[in-house]
Amino acid sequence: MLNLSLKQLSDSLAAKQVSSVEMTRFFLDRIAKHNDELNAFITVDEEKTLAQAAAADARIAKGDVAPLTGIPVAHKDIFCARGWLTTCASKMLSNFIAPYDAHVISRFNDAGAVMLGKTNMDEFAMGSSNETSFYGPVKNPWDMTRVPGGSSGGSAAAVAARIAPVATATDTGGSIRQPAALTGLTGLKPTYGLVSRYGMIAFASSLDQGGVLSKSAEDAALVLNVMAGFDARDSTSIEHAPEDYTRDLRSTSADPAQPLAGLRVGVVKEHFGAGLSADVGGPVQAALEQFRKLGATLVDVSTPSAKLAVPAYYVIAPAEASSNLSRFDGARYGHRAADYRDLAEMYSKSRAEGFGSEVKRRILIGAYVLSHGYYDAYYVKAQKIRRLIANDFAAAFAQCDIVVGPTSPTVAFPLGAKASDPVQMYLNDIYTIPANLAGLPAMSIPCGFGEHGLPVGLHMVGNYFAEAQMLNIAHQYQLATDWHARAPEGV
Amino acid sequence: MVNPSWEIVIGLETHAQLSTVSKMFSGSSTAFGAAPNTQASAVDIALPGVLPVANRGAVERAIRFGLAVNGGSSDNINRRSVFARKNYFYPDLPKGYQISQLDLPIVKGGGVTILSPTRGEITVKLTRAHLEEDAGKSLHEDFQGMSGIDLNRAGTPLLEIVSEPDMRSAGEAVAYAKALHGLVTWIGICDGNMQEGSFRCDANVSVRRPGGPLGTRREIKNLNSFRFLQQAIEYEARWQIETIEDGGTVKQATVLFDPDTGETRSMRSKEDAHDYRYFPDPDLLPLVVSDAWIDEIKSTMPALPEMVRNKFIEFGLSRAQAEHHVSSIETAKFALSTFTETPPKEIPDLSNWISGILSAKLNADGLNFSQSKVSPEQLRFLSGKVADGTLSGNMAREVIDAVWVGEGEPDAIIEKRGLKQLSDSGEIEKIVDQVLAANAKSVEEFRAGKDKAFNALVGQVMKASKGKANPAQVNEILKRKLSQL
Fold first, then answer.
1. A234 contacts B48? CB cut-off 8 A
2. What is this structure's pTM?
3. Does some domain include residue B2?
4. Inter-chain contact A88–B48, Cβ cutoff 8 Å?
5. Whether residue B255 is found in the same domain as residue B361
6. Rounded CA gap, A124 and A288, in Å?
7. For the segment B371-394, what is each residue's pLDDT rounded down to a tens digit?
8. Is B381 exposed, middle or buried (0-12, 13-18, 19+ CB in 10 A)?
9. Residues of A annotated catalytic, as ranges
């Protein structure tokens, strides 16, 4: 069961070769064995999980089977799940039992999927190494002394270590794709608005998007079928006609040797300059060559404004976060300081105690850029840059179907290596942030190994709602290569 | 309080609670008076992960308002407006920010025409009107050493209506507030209940030398009655004038009015004003209003007070009477229904009854004209009886009193009480002759040029006829007899 695809797991459930309870037990046992070291899960509740598995078995017995029925799925601890501790990896919410289900959780429940547990993450999704979690850092299963990336580090480590078949995640500036790259997984961030944000604890509302960390593009497509869909409770949810994201995966191309014939792959030259580690550049170049072999044409494209993406992002995201996190005031739920003299002190002490330093840093940056006299110079200007970046992509998509490059400038770095240097940490997301600012769908897929035998990710950005096409490109690449099938040893 | 060497400048910010069933950004009920926190959903208490969805009914009401203050034209309605977050911490503000509109409000411009006590008809221009959500309530009294928070009101939809500083006296401010109150209830977007806080005003007041530059303003918060509005502005203006005349300066501040002392006191100065860090709410898309939607709303708009008032003036009524009849849509509907297909000469009586005796009765019972216990048909029946001389005006009012307390239909009451005006001139002449004979002194006085004596004689005739004599005939006969003496 360790390396089976979701399709294979589903088939074995449908064929009654294994029950959902047995399958779930298998993964719960693996969690019990490895989580102490990995720290990938914040909450595991075997009783609740097995009850869901038993319900899934009853459904399967009645023949009421959807593709994910009975499959255990790990959820990032940013999604509210009724009756489950939902912490966002913060002391602030360390006592918060969610009284309702996020839209995403409801969709999985409706599909009959089994909730395997809540995965660790950077606090409030702020981080690129999973070291800002109140619950401690997550280890990279490829090298336990290294970070798994962030903020969805727990989801990534869980799937990479095969202690969960698949996991949900969220991506505000690269939080799905960078961990995918650093742990050898397939990570998909859909078009902004495709997956409802209702019940997904907000970091930066205009950038946050739910997605998936999986072992393959094929698995990601199956999961996206469940996650995507309009939700009237999210005003930014888009009324996009439902699609079957697996449809292109099943189609057969005219020339099986060249399944990507006619595809124009845009290569951003700026992404191969200074800052890119050579051990990452090599596998990425090889992947481009592989695309060519599969029939694609490589086209040089330019995104000149992308160099402004990181500074613009670190204005917009903290600005929104500073406001989004105001609700955590100790008044109605969450952490409240034990002693305080008055209201102002209740706020300041509760928030000082409840938030970690990275969260505080971003709240301060956000409050600063929104404050009177600075708003135009920072926030308004950043919004203009955001538009320029979207324009860059629009121009690029006139020349190509998909834009590719490296996901992360380096392979996984040692725990603590960048923890004290925020700017170095922020630059981890230099290649991924532009897609968030433009609201475009993007993926990372494994494309080889760099220094110390650590995974390297290939980044792909598609046009709006091009998920099906992008998943098929990834799928064709994965049919021709086996990088995605490599698993770390020792777990 | 008018001091000619000073000019008072007033602008009003009015919060009208929109009469939607559910809240501005959630599905919770907006009903008043429920047990604390029973009308607060996950969205209202700002649980992690929840999101706002704008209430279409609230937007529609804002559009109705925009049309109503712009003569029905929609060029003051922004086709694209933007919700923004106003950030500040307070326990009754669960999200830590209020969703409002800043740079792009839904309504920009328009005006409200009022009758100024001193300047005649003036138009108070509107700067803007924008949608926002209300905060909850902090309850400090009931809890020892703690505060209670009731979030039932949190998220209630409000339309904040901002006027230009076009008013020059407390009287004008009250006239404007009343006109606005009449308008929002007229078009059905607000229940206008001031006790429950559905309609409340903040007044920006400054003073200056006539023709001089604007003075520094102070803002009086949360005035929830017309009387308080009047008192607060009068006190504040007097205070500012005295402060300046005593050599002091007025500093920009937010002040509260204390109805018990009739005074205003400073709440916070400009120095400790919040930096609200407004920015567009990323959870809400810009609010886009289509022409088709506006047209749809236009088709459901009632005739506006101004148009109906002109109609009353066409009926021959005075501006003041017409103004009374458009003070609410219920009054206007009642008056229109009463005057329609009524002989013109009866309209003045009917109009007086509506603005006089009926209004007094409704006020006393706390009712509006849609709940009147005397119907337009019954009033018309009575005006017909006055016109044909059967009843005197006093008799008609007696019948109205009787109908009001449930004695039955007017004809039955007239019959039962034997109310019939004496119009037989022979009968009246007899009574006049008796009165003249019995009141020689009054006759003497009249002859000596005392007009008052005539009225005394009329009174005696009416008394002798037990109030039934037709007053016009009494006047005429008495005059004739006196001149013949």
1. no
2. 0.91
3. no
4. yes
5. no
6. 35
7. 999 999 999 999 999 998 889 888
8. middle
9. 76, 151, 175
